[in-house]
Design goal:
The protein is built from one helix and 23 strands. The protein has one helix at 66-69, and strands at residues 2-4, 10-15, 21-25, 29-33, 57-62, 71-80, 83-93, 100-108, 120-125, 131-135, 154-158, 178-181, 185-191, 198-203, 209-212, 250-252, 258-263, 276-280, 285-291, 296-302, 310-315, 321-325, 330-334. The strands form six sheets. It has a four-stranded antiparallel sheet with strand order 1-23-22-21, with no helix packed on it. The protein starts with a strand and ends with a strand.
């Protein structure tokens, strides 16, 4: 069912403690959405964004201590001299919910690239309070995903105020913010509710969309190994396996173009506990992956009749599943029939 409509390319959603939602719109607006679907005026204090192609205002996450400090984190395509890049800003949401105050950039993907694609950009706090940031390969820069001297095609892990945590991988030649390398364009990320392990959903090229569990210091292969091919049909990389590079837990071929992801822990569907839900853009559906430990044990394709590009997936405080429809501009709620 439709909760709210009239949004323009909504990208990220986060629930406030009072049940309202913060929703980003890719052109550069952040709004509050009430449970009955009312949209606020755009919240002020949001940074300027490079709103072209896949770029713009992207994900939103609340500080684990939001109830005390009201800190909000936004990822965005930042316009810069010579191009743009994925950046993360944090600021304090005022009590009225009308402004983001003292917004400060805490991370910049480097180097700056002239590109309008593959910003990655999901934000997930781990159980230590560190922040995972997925940073895409910027399309056209794929070989840089194997270069640990930069942030291109990487999973980043930073402190809430910026900078690298002391327990990040300490590997010669690696930038200190790096957690894992060899990623293409991760647009889905969530912590497993029991283990606290990060799970990601990653765009492949033509085929080869992946589900991974990025571990500290590991290499996930892009573009050296992949289960996909180039859009032209040409072979990519060296094959599907190589020593020192990790295999995905699961992959899709043909591609579904996975975006937001969330684990289910609610009571509305007890049989779905610990399932990973992944939105599909090109696939226009919601995918449920059943899991056991670090294994994907099954796939169920849902809402295939909607014809909606599903950009983000979240579990609401009511135990229902909430979705963002990319081109439809809607917040959708999924609940049991009857």
């Amino acid at each position: 069912e439709t909760v709210a409509s009239g949004l323009e390319n909504p990208w990220g959603l986060a629930f406030l403690p009072d049940g309202r939602m913060l929703v980003t719109e890719r052109p550069g607006r952040l709004r509050l959405v009430t449970a009955d679907g009312k949209l606020s005026a755009p919240i002020t204090g949001v940074p300027n964004v490079a709103a072209r192609g896949q770029g713009g205002l992207l994900d939103v996450a609340l500080d684990p201590d939001f109830a005390q400090n009201r800190m909000v984190y936004l990822s965005f395509a930042e316009p810069r001299s010579g191009g743009n890049g994925t950046s993360v800003v944090r600021g304090k949401l005022n009590e009225r919910g009308t402004a983001l105050e003292n917004a400060t950039v805490i991370f910049r993907q480097m180097p700056t690239i002239q590109s309008s694609a593959h910003f990655g950009s999901r934000l997930v706090f781990d159980r230590t309070g560190a922040l995972f940031v997925t940073a895409g390969d910027r399309y056209g820069q794929k070989d840089e995903a194997q270069n640990p001297a930069n942030h291109i095609g990487k999973v980043i892990r930073i402190r809430p105020e910026g900078g690298a945590p002391t327990d990040n991988p300490k590997i010669s030649g690696w930038q200190p913010e790096l957690w894992s390398i060899g990623h293409r364009n991760v647009q889905g990320a969530a912590l497993h509710p029991e283990t606290g392990q990060l799970w990601t959903a990653e765009h492949g090229a033509r085929g080869g969309d992946e589900v991974n569990t990025p571990k500290a210091g590991k290499n996930y292969g892009w573009p050296v190994i992949t289960y996909g091919v180039d859009y032209s049909g040409a072979k990519l990389g060296e094959g599907t396996q190589k020593a020192g590079m990790e295999q995905p837990l699961f992959y899709w071929d043909p591609s579904i173009a996975p975006s937001g992801a969330a684990f289910y822990t609610g009571a509305a569907w007890p049989a779905w506990k610990n399932s990973l839900f992944v939105g599909a853009l090109a696939g226009q559906m919601l995918v449920r992956l059943s899991t056991s430990g670090e294994a994907v044990t099954g796939q169920e394709r849902l809402l295939t009749n909607l014809g909606e590009r599903i950009r983000d997936v979240r579990q609401g405080p009511d135990g229902f599943i909430y979705l963002l429809s990319d081109d439809g501009g809607k917040v959708l709620r999924v609940r049991p029939a009857g």
